[in-house]
Structure formats: structure tokens, C-alpha cells
DNA sequence: TGAACGAAGATTGTTCAACAATTTCCGGAC
DNA sequence: GTCCGGAAATTGTTGAACAATCTTCGTTCA
């Protein structure tokens, strides 16, 4: 288990004393997990983590409460805390959310910023040409985040951020994953074209089909992995 | 593998005295607030609450972390914890969520249960006839919760539950509120009629208008209160 | 051999007491 | 009346402690 080595590289709490340490711990763990340094299924030992982060077990526990609520970690009573690893049910949940919110944003979002979407697609194409899969995945995530930004609503954006964080966990759990992102670049592109033509309803419908196919693809890959 | 392996894979027994006290405290406070026993703006003193609930300050703190994340309470560093009191911005956020999720559920929800909605409308009508405003408000809430249940998605349902909890806070904050609920009974009724006729798109559009008017009404009342 | 048993040892759940950092309260000075 | 300064109260955080629960690992018994 390489977790111990990674934990030791965590930054220690320093300087600013007495300010929402719990939230700080939560954010550190959140990004550590998002970046894939802590992989799904990894156990987060209270004692080890508290020591590594330079905070007390009680403070760490407050961070755990937040991350648990965000579904980034899984707490099993008397067993411990683990990085969440969404299975088939999790993927279905994720796409259930996306299939409602994203088309709704496209169809009814009052702040739809087509230009921002265009520039993201251009970025993604550049990343694709450069063979930078990481950058492409980032761009794809930005695209869908920008989409939900059209709702002009903080709650929905937070939900989407949470869901996309879970998506990252799914990808991290599949180390042998093929490149899921590259062939969505052009799908995003055609979506943007529809938007530029003012055909929001068509765009929403296309997006729904797109999400259906993406879910099916992921589920197929998850099944064959077991 | 030995019997031990089989036993350990069984679902964990609930009700143990030694688990989830933090979650329990959170649920107690949640319902206390929902029922209006703790009004918006009220301060939740750590010491007093911990003593009253018979838990330690640390455990109470874990509950606070959860409720803060649910936006049911507001934490101000070094000042304390208060029951949230959504203002104009909060109401706009709430309706921003509802205006996206509810029509989407109506339009695309795979588990739309028209019969359940019908029976809720019937209940609401009975409450209206009996002059029971409380029951009417409950029925109205059930109606919209059932609507989101059509999405078959837990995340969206949780978000909706959170949003409806904030709605209750808004109503509690307006002690002199007129009866906002009674004239929505028939609007829900006409919505159901459209659904029974299979006209989901029309229903979604009508619901959007309905939510727009409801928001405007609430905002007007909030403005004149200041 | 291999499965069941059971007693350490480790880990989590929770509380308590203490202390530092801030805010709030209150009485006096101008 | 308001401005100031110092108690008093409250929050933020820690460390130790203990009970409950899991894990581990050697022992016993078919």
C-alpha cells in the first residue's frame, strides 16, 4: 500500500492558527483525492492522517463529516474511512443527475455563455492535437461545468462539481481505462454549433443522447472489469 | 473462505449505541428547525446545546459541519452558529434550483408516478376544505418532492429536500405571512390533468410559469417587509 | 490440513478538560 | 454621548482517556 508514502508528502498545517482548520483539512484531502494521489478504496487512518496533517483527530473528524456528505469518502462505522469508489450504482446516479441538469441548463439556462463554450472546445481540440489526454479531460470537465454555470445557480453548480468529482473517482478506479475523452471533443463541438445556430432544444436533445451513450460506454467497461 | 468472511460481508446492524451520534444530533436539530421550534436567526450556543442534547461539544461540532453544508445553519467564525435566514438572494437561489429540476423531472423523469400526484392533490383539496393550512402546506411540499422522485435519482432528491427545507425557513421568517399555499392547490391540480393527458411538455412549461409567479409573489412580500 | 475459537492489540466513537484567539459586555474617562 | 480598556464569555483546537468494536494471530480440535 503506497498510501503511507503519499500521506507523508502532505503539507503540514502551518502559520495561520485559529481559522477553520477543519475546512482547510477537507480542502486538502479533496484536492489530494481529485488529483489521484489518494486512490479509490484507500483507507484514511485517523491517527496517521491527523499526524501527517498536523491537526488533532477531532479536527480531522470534522473534515471527514464534510467529505462524507460530499460522497467523496465512505465511512463505515467502527471500520474506518475510505476514499469512495463508485460502482455501477454510483455511475448510474452520476449520469442520472447529469441527464437532468445539463439539458435543463442548455434549454432554460438564463446565462448561457456560448462564447465561453466555444473557447473551451478550441482548447480541447488543441490538447487533442498535442496528445495531452490530461488537458483534454480537464477541458471536458470545464465544458460541462460551464454548461451548468448557465443556470446562474450556486446550488446546482455545487452539485455538478460534486458529481464531476465522483466522475474523476470513477476514472481513477479504472487504471486501465481506454481514452474516453478524445471522442467527446467533437461531440461538444457539434453541441456548440447547434447553440450558435440558436437551436437550444435540439442541443438539449443531442446532449441527452450523448450522456446516454457515455453512461452505457462506462458501464460496459465497468462490467467487463469484474 | 471460512465462515468469518461471510459474516463480515453482511450488512452492518444499525441501532448500536456506539455509532453516528453526530448524525443523530444533526437530524434532531434539522427537524427542530424544520418544525419552527428554532426560528431563523436564532443563535445556537455550543455549550447550551451540547448540554441540552447530552453530547459533547466535539460531537455537536460534527453535526454543525453537516448542517452548515446543508445551508440550514450559518457559521460565522468566532461569532457562533445561527439558524439560516434566507433573504432575497436565498429565495432566488431556491427558485433557481426548482425552475431547473422540477420541469426537467416532469419532462424527462423516467419514474413519473401520476397516480401518486393525483392522490396528493386530492389530499390537499381535503385539507383546503377543512381549512387546515398546515396540512395543505405539507401536501404541497409532498407534491413537489414526489415530482422530483420522478427522476429516480437520490442526489437530486436530496438537493430538493434541502431546498424545500430552506423554503420552510423562508416561511418561518415571515411570521405575518398570508396564506401562500391555498391557491397553489388548483395549480397543482391542473398540472396533474395535463400529465394525465400525456402532455408532459405542456406541463413542464406551465410549471415553469407557476414557479416564476410564486417566486415573484414571495419576493414582493419580502421586499415590503423591509 | 483446515476451520472454529478466543484472547491480545489496534482502531474507531465519544467525552472531558484545558488553553489560545476573538468577540462581547460593561464601567469609567473625556 | 462616545470612545477606551479590560474582564467575562464564547469559539477554535488540542491531547489524553476510555468504551466499543474490529483485526490479528496463535491454539485447539475435528
Tell me what you see in this structure.
- The structure is a homodimer of 226-residue chains.
- The first copy, chain A, has two domains: 3-83, Arc Repressor Mutant, subunit A; 88-225, GntR ligand-binding domain-like (Four Helix Bundle (Hemerythrin (Met), subunit A)), CATH 1.20.120.
- Helices cover 69% and strands 4% of the residues of chain A.
- Chain A has ten helices and three strands.
- Chain A has helices at residues 3-8, 21-34, 46-53, 57-69, 88-108, 114-130, 133-149, 154-173, 182-196, 200-225, and strands spanning 43-44, 73-76, 80-83.
- Residues 1-18 of chain A have low confidence and may be disordered.
- Chains A and B meet through helix 4, helix 5 and helix 8 of A and helix 4, helix 5 and helix 8 of B.
- The structure holds a DNA duplex (30 and 30 nucleotides).
Summarize the structure.
Helices cover 69% and strands 4% of the residues of chain A. The first copy, chain A, is mainly alpha-helical and 226 residues long.
Distinctive features:
mainly alpha, Four Helix Bundle (Hemerythrin (Met), subunit A), 2 domains, 3 strands, globular, disordered N terminus, DNA-binding
Amino acid at each position: 500500500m503506497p498510501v503511507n508514502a503519499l500521506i507523508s508528502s502532505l503539507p503540514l498545517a502551518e502559520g495561520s492558527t485559529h481559522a477553520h482548520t477543519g475546512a482547510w483539512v477537507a480542502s486538502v484531502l479533496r484536492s489530494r483525492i481529485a488529483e489521484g494521489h489518494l486512490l479509490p478504496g484507500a483507507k484514511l487512518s485517523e491517527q496517521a492522517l491527523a499526524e501527517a496533517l498536523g491537526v488533532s483527530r477531532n479536527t480531522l473528524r470534522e473534515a471527514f463529516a464534510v467529505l462524507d456528505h460530499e460522497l467523496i469518502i465512505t465511512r463505515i462505522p467502527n471500520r474506518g474511512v475510505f476514499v469512495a469508489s463508485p460502482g455501477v450504482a454510483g455511475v448510474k446516479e452520476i449520469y442520472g443527475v447529469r441527464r437532468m441538469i445539463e439539458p435543463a441548463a442548455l434549454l432554460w439556462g438564463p446565462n448561457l455563455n456560448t462564447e465561453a463554450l466555444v473557447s473551451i472546445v478550441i482548447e480541447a481540440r488543441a490538447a487533442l492535437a498535442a496528445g495531452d489526454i490530461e488537458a483534454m479531460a480537464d477541458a471536458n470537465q470545464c465544458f460541462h461545468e460551464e454548461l451548468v454555470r448557465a443556470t446562474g445557480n450556486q446550488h446546482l453548480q455545487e452539485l455538478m462539481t460534486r458529481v464531476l468529482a465522483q466522475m474523476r473517482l470513477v476514472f481513477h478506479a479504472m487504471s486501465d481505462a481506454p481514452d474516453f475523452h478524445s471522442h467527446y471533443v467533437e461531440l461538444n463541438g457539434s453541441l456548440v454549433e447547434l447553440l450558435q445556430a440558436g437551436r437550444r432544444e435540439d442541443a438539449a436533445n443531442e446532449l441527452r443522447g450523448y450522456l446516454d451513450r457515455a453512461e452505457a460506454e462506462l458501464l460496459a467497461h465497468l462490467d467487463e472489469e469484474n
